[in-house]
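Q: What structure does this chain adopt?
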Amino acid sequence: MHFAFTDEQAMIAETAKAFFAEQATSERTRAAMAATGVDEALWQAFTAELGLAGVAVPESEGGVGLGMIELAILAEEAGRHVAALPLLASVGLAIPAILAGGSDGQKMRLLSRLAAGELVASFAEAAPGTIWSDGALTGSALHVPHGARADLFVVAVDDKALLIERDTPGLAVTPLTSMDQTRPYARLDFGAVAAEPLADPAAALAAARHTGALVLAADALGGAQACLDRTVAYAQERIQFGRAIGSFQAVKHRLADMMVGIEQARSAVYWAACAIDERSDEAVFAVHAAKAFACDTYSDAAGEMIQLHGGIGFTWEHDAHLYFKRARSDRTLLGTPDWHRERIAQMAGLDEAA
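A:
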């Protein structure tokens, strides 16, 4: 299989690369971390000015009309800079759910506003014991990404997918402290909250989980690449025993291992994106593989970044810890790498993953 970006995709990649490099600086990320976890000016530029929140939404629904490859490109570049955006929650989870499972009326009412950034949405998995009965939802949902910022929630309850607006009576939103402050969580408590079911819940839940996993894998790919790039630059300028530390064979080998892992992760991520776009039978398998491999690669790269930077890599002032925290978040959300490997093993007909 030969894969290469089209001219249009290459242009989108260059645009995204320049956009995030200029605007998603670590200073702005740290300022967002100290507040709500969202760089509102960056989100406004990403959505309203560039219209990129609707990259995979059809033009007829107010979006750009592209696909998963373009979404993966954006997520990769956002991850490269640990951008403080509700990209996963709104673009990676909620929008795909509404697009795949919403009725015509729900799509018309919500998608254009979500694509324009007028609304921020999130996706929640209801906790055990949560009950949907007679049009009302009672229970809770934990660890909802960007839940405190969201205006709208898609809540998965058993085999149902429900829409709940933020100001609905009976809904309580409690911000939580998270390790990665660029992706803050919230707890939702439902006190007989009126909720609107999506028309096709099975399609909605599948789209949210698969697209969300792809966005996390692409975010991990971009973060791992940034870890390598920054570590190579440091290894070229840090002098020890009269030589740049990058000239030592032991350091070279570790950097080379990082690069090999990242290139393998890149293949997995864009294979998964292509498979979803082409509605391939391999799509689910590919998404599991991409999520597992890219997140493991990111965790390894972030750890190597800290180790090869020495003592400075452990300090609050250095950006290495931003990448380490995002890597841990990517690894945990929507299933750990081990969980995804178990799904692959089951699909491959193996009784149990090694």
